[in-house]
Amino acid sequence: MANFSSEYYCKLDAKGRLVLPAKLKAALPETYGNELVMRRGFDPCLVLYPMNEYRKLDSQVSALDDFDVDKRRFKRNFYRGNTEVELDSTGRFLIPKPLLRFADITKEVVVVGMGKTIEIWDPERYEDYLIQDPEVFASEAKKYLSNTNK
């Protein structure tokens, strides 16, 4: 199982390709090594899934009832723009233009390890989605990580 962490500041090349940081690439499961799925995030970022993690999520989403309008709308938005990407020999992959526009990414990105997934952010937007106050972060940690709240 992959365990991605940390953040990396990177640049896209002129064709919109990104080199996956070496530590993140090394954490990819060997089974599907260079195969990933990229999709729009629930926040204004892109999310990379190792193929095994994406297949688990895909199984849940595809099982939703197409006769229910809300579930059908969710499925449509979930699958919209999902792209399989394969890393080349240098660990590089192309980010399609519609996904770059969605995340407001131009040249610089922050690549963030999120446990089972990897997020790709515009650096300014990324800062807007972080907890800036250490006391608030400590309170959130207590709320979500406390043994009594599991």
Describe this structure in words.
With 150 residues, the protein is of the alpha+beta class. The chain has one domain (7-149): 3-Layer(aba) Sandwich (Chemotaxis protein chec). Helix content is 35%, strand content 24%. It is built from 6 helices and 8 strands, in the order ββαββααββαββαα. The protein has helices at residues 22-26, 51-62, 69-79, 97-102, 123-128, 134-145; strands at residues 7-11, 17-19, 35-40, 46-50, 83-86, 92-94, 108-113, 118-121. The chain has a 6-stranded antiparallel beta sheet with strand order 1-7-8-4-3-5. A two-stranded antiparallel ribbon has the order 2-6. A hairpin with a 5-residue loop joins strand 3 (35-40) and strand 4. The two termini are 22 Å apart. The model has no long low-confidence stretch (mean pLDDT 93).
